[in-house]
Amino acid sequence: MSRLMRIFIIHILSWMSSCLLGDGLPFDLLSISGLRHFKANNLTNPGCAQAALDDLKKKASIALNNQQPYSVTNSSRSPPNGNEHGYYSWAPYFHANCSGVPHIKDPMTDCPYQRIDGKYATDLRLLTDPRDSGSMVNDVLALSIYYYLYEDEKYATKAVQLLNVWFLDPDTAMRPNIEFGQVVRGPGEWVGRVEGILDMRYYVYIPAAVELLTNSTAVGGSNSQFTKEMKTWFFQYGNWLLTSKLGTGARNAANNHATFYVVQLATYFAWTGQEKKAIILIQEFRDRQFQYQIIKSGEQPLESGRTRSFHYQAFNLIALTYIARLSEKINGAPNFWEQKTKQGATIKTAVDYLVDQGFPKDDPIYFMVPLYSAKQHYGDSTGKYNKFLSKLLQIDIPGDEWWLFWNPLALNDAGSMPPKVGTNRTDDDDIEEDGGGYTPADTNETVKWSSGALSITNSSVLCNYFVWGSLWILILGFIPRL
């Protein structure tokens, strides 16, 4: 098929889909209202946020000067079906077991692979799609936030270029599915798995980035052709999630796979004008999987049995608090903050359970976003949330990611910064339970929290939720790491 024909077909599909898509909800999952408040009230005198702005500028400038836009077609290894436009990743916890296998020519195809929970395969970097996917989201967010704050068109132009190359250009675009995510290697057919859908969880931030870019010349408004084509891609990906065998499998999962499935699909429903479907999806999850995810004590038994108990419970809470925040923005959606499980537990019960466990060695930083989100909704009458947050904010985090702040007024208060301590995180720590996630940037770089950037008191708002520290907690925080 010629390139012109492909372009023509994409434009026709875009036009047809735009007839089906409503305007959708204005997206605020990135706390756009917080950016708006900061821009209007604090940008000229940022105070404790200056270090954050400096780091944002650094990351946006690096993205601006990237001369090789990310694309699935850049990979040296195509998916098993040979289509270079397909996203491709391997199951990170599966390892070749060549014991007793005769005449081994290639361990990847000759040896069976066995799962070892929490232990990462050493050759994951051979596939570039996961890493590039995360880097694309990271760069687009840095560029779009910088454009929104400073209205410098060249940053918007670069963000749109990255989005075009990854999602829209017929020569380089990723297909709107993940048929070959988290493939288990070895003898036999290599196929995608339900777990691979977790690889795409970062894409829930793309609608927010597009919203930030709306008034730029590069985008041209909320009804521009670019915006329609972006919504079309996510409309098609949402349809794949809804109807495909793998998507159905994720929807019927019991643990964090189902939770993050709802995070993704409800987001895309909401953005593409399908709010009623988003409400139905959230209600279905509330009445099914959520009923069994948190027991009376607050423990999440489907996550606590993993090799990193605290980590995976915090991971699921990232998604649960995201759903709660999203539900607040959809008229008619249930108040997910107050929903109870079969044993009478709520999100707060699960948050309290982890706080009461004490400060863990098990990668506690993943708890930052759900804990702060819970504090904002439920309050903190005893001060224990702030006490735990103060410990979290003393940790040095690898600087390839940054924190988004979640409170519209998060930059009102400032204070003193407690001393920092080290972290035992490794390059692979953001790869979730067969969920992919690979670090986009140099893990040798470390971002220090802004000096004078934090005051934890019962009444203060954490200033350095604007300080760019670790956003693997982009989904909610999470940009991938390998």
From TrEMBL:
| Chain residue ranges for the region called Disordered | 417-443
Top-rank taxon of the source lineage equals: Eukaryota
**Family annotation (Pfam families):** Alginate_lyase
GO MF annotations in UniProt = lyase activity
Q: Which InterPro entries match?
A: Alginate_lyase_dom, Chondroitin_lyas
Show the GO cellular component annotation of the record.
periplasmic space
The UniProt keywords, alphabetically, are: Lyase, Signal
The signal sequence is: 1-22
Alginate lyase domain boundaries: 72-356
- Identify this protein by name: 2436_t:CDS:1
Q: Which organism is it from?
A: Ambispora gerdemannii
Q: What is the lineage of its organism?
A: Eukaryota, Fungi, Fungi incertae sedis, Mucoromycota, Glomeromycotina
